[in-house]
Amino acid sequence: MAGYRLRSFETIGSTNTEALAAAAAGDTGGVWFVTAQQNAGRGRRGRQWESPVGNLAATLLIVPESSPTLAATLGFVAGVSLNRALSSILPSGLVKIGIDGADGQSDGSKARIALKWPNDVLADGAKLAGILLEAQKLSDGRHAIAIGFGVNAIAAPQGLPYPATSLLDLGVSRDAQSVFEALSDAWVDTFGMWNDGRGIGDVLKQWRASAAGIGAPVAVNQNGEVLRGIFETIDDEGRLIVRSDDDRRIVITAGDVHFGATASARS
C-alpha cells in the first residue's frame, strides 16, 4: 500500500460517500476507506449493494491531474487490479456455473476469474465482486474519483436475477483484510502502469485479456431496450463493441450485459 493512507471504520453507511465527502472537505486523495460493515452501500445506477460483516467494502479516493475522460478509465485500472488480486487468491481450475457465465482467459487458457464489462468480476461464471466509479468536481476544477470495491468474501446476496458467489462458496477461506491487502498491492502496480492516463492502452490490453465473453453472444439492456449480437471487443476508450445480428458494429457506452442463455433468449 506504498504511498497511500488508510482510514478504517467498524461500521459506515457507504465508503464511496465517505470518500467523496473527504474530497469536498479538501482531502487531496491517495487514501483508502475500508469498513468492516457497510449498511448503505450502492452499486451502479443507485442499486443496493449488500455488504455484511466479513465481505470487503473499500473505496480508494484519487484526485488525478488527468482530464475527466482519462480519469474515467480508472475503472479499468480497478478491474485489472481486482482481477490480479482475486486470481492470486482463488485456486486454478474451472468449474463453470450459472446461466450468465462466460469463460475468462489467462495466457490463452481458460481462467476462473473473468472481467465483465463494465464493472463486475466473475468467478466460475458467477458474480464475485463489483466496482463503482463515482466522480465529483472540486472547487479548483479537478475531479475527485471514488473507486468503490465490493468483494463477496464470505457471503453472496440471494434472490438476484443473475448468479452470485463468494470466496467461501468457492472453497476459499480468506478474510476481508487479506483480500484488501492483495487488492491494494495489485492497485499500486496497475496504477503505475496507467501513468496518469498515458498507459491506458496497456491497461486495456490486460483488461481484454481477462474479459468474459469476447467472441460470444451478448445481450445489452439499455433502459429496457435489448440489443443482441456478438461481443467483439472493448475499444481504446473502454467502450463495448457489439456486432449486431444485421452485421452493424455498435458502440455501447452504458448498459447491463448478459451472456450465455440470457443473451440467446428471444423472448
TrEMBL record:
PROSITE patterns: BPL_LPL_CATALYTIC. This is biotin--[biotin carboxyl-carrier protein] ligase. One of its GO terms (molecular function) is ATP binding. GO terms for cellular component: cytoplasm. It holds the Pfam family BPL_LplA_LipB. It comes from Devosia epidermidihirudinis. Its EC number is 6.3.4.15. Keywords: ATP-binding, Biotin, Ligase, Nucleotide-binding. The keyword Ligase applies. It catalyses: biotin + L-lysyl-[protein] + ATP = N(6)-biotinyl-L-lysyl-[protein] + AMP + diphosphate + H(+). Residues 1-195 form the BPL/LPL catalytic domain.
